[in-house]
UniProtKB/TrEMBL annotation:
Residues 8-327 form the D-isomer specific 2-hydroxyacid dehydrogenase catalytic domain. Belongs to the D-isomer specific 2-hydroxyacid dehydrogenase family. GO terms for molecular function: D-lactate dehydrogenase (NAD+) activity; NAD binding. InterPro entries: D-isomer_2_OHA_DH_cat_dom, D-isomer_DH_CS, D-isomer_DH_CS1, D-isomer_DH_NAD-bd, D-LDH-like, NAD(P)-bd_dom_sf. Keywords: NAD, Oxidoreductase. The lineage of its organism: Bacteria, Bacillati, Actinomycetota, Actinomycetes, Kitasatosporales. This is 2-hydroxyacid dehydrogenase.
Length: 334
């Protein structure tokens, strides 16, 4: 059997082909799954998708009509999939429920330190042989307060690094993580976390309850010189509200690896096209903002885990097994 994989990055392709080789052939496409590309899947029983795929009602209808029976998503997030429609159509859907939390946590810290110490501005200057220090002053993080929203595996890894910096720790989550509490984390209401934290990092999933968790009110509650980092999901932040606060001169720095309207932009080369997203165009002009293209997970360690789990999800589907990765189980076979 041949597996069709959508949205495969150049670095991923050899890893995918090697992982599937003992079991199946693979056809890797760099295009993302959406309404325009869904017909390509006709005749493929199993497809694999990336986090930026669009698996709405129309796409799922097209897949089912073409004979697809199983969707193996190569990500933890699945807010891009209409699970109710998939279940109604009898499509099996699986995801990767876990991969290296260190990849994302370490990248979140990369963003935090980059905006704090003005690394991008300094690098751009030195390329022009401008070695002035004006505008490059950062601040020590030791003794300051890190606020972590979401203290699961990634949030815990972020907290351990913050503890290593010697920071005070505040946390917010639906349930306390004993490992974070053992490091000295104090769990508080999110409003208190916003008001007292010098560095705020987001590590919660995107759900209806967390959409625009960081809204205009939350942003106004934060310190004027706070650092805000989002390496989770773009929809957690009301970007228009963030731009308004940045225009008012607030925040020491903002590091964003995700953007709420990133679909159709991130993972693609748009350098030769006119920018149609006015919010993103304005966002990247602020000197205290660093935007990256959803790459926090993108280490050989994490991607290899994601791919290995995806292969296992396919094998489990074929063997009739169900694991914690299954979002929509296989329809009963007649």
């Amino acid at each position: 059997m041949e597996i069709l994989a959508f949205g495969v990055q150049a670095d991923e392709r050899p890893l995918i082909e090697k992982a599937f080789a003992p079991h199946h052939d693979t056809r890797c496409l760099d295009v993302f799954l959406n309404e325009d590309t869904a017909p390509i899947a006709a005749g493929y029983e199993i497809i694999s998708t990336s986090v930026n795929a669009s698996l709405n009602n129309r796409v799922l209808q097209t897949l089912a009509a073409g004979g697809t029976q199983m969707i193996a998503q190569r990500s933890t997030g699945f807010n891009n999939i209409d699970l109710q429609v998939a279940e109604r159509l009898g499509l099996t859907v699986a995801r990767v429920s876990y991969y290296s939390p260190y990849s994302v946590a370490e990248f979140a810290w990369t963003l935090a330190t980059a905006v704090n110490r003005r690394i991008v501005r300094a690098s751009n200057r030195t390329r022009d042989f401008d070695f002035r220090l004006d505008g490059l002053m950062g601040r020590d993080l030791r003794g300051r307060t890190a606020g972590v929203l979401g203290t699961g595996k990634i949030g815990e890894a972020f907290t351990r690094i913050a503890h290593g910096f010697g920071m005070n720790l505040l946390g917010w989550d639906v349930a306390e993580n004993p490992a974070c509490a053992a490091l000295g984390m104090k769990y508080v209401e999110k409003e208190q976390l916003f008001a007292e934290s010098d560095l705020i990092s987001l590590h919660v999933p995107l759900l209806p309850a967390t959409h625009h968790l960081i809204d205009a009110s939350a942003l106004r509650t934060m310190k004027d010189d706070a650092i805000l980092v989002n390496s989770s999901r773009g929809g957690l932040i009301d970007t228009d509200a963030l731009v308004s606060e940045l225009r008012a001169g607030r925040f020491t720095g903002v590091g964003l690896d995700v953007y709420e309207a990133e679909a159709g932009l991130f993972f693609l080369d748009k350098s030769l096209e006119a920018v149609e997203d006015d919010t993103l165009a304005r966002l990247v002009t602020f000197p205290n903002v660093v935007v990256t293209s959803h790459q926090a997970y993108y280490t050989v360690d994490a991607v290899s885990q994601i791919i290995d789990t995806t292969v296992q999800n396919v094998l489990d589907y074929q063997a009739g097994r169900r694991s914690e990765n299954v979002l929509v189980p296989a329809a009963p076979r007649s």
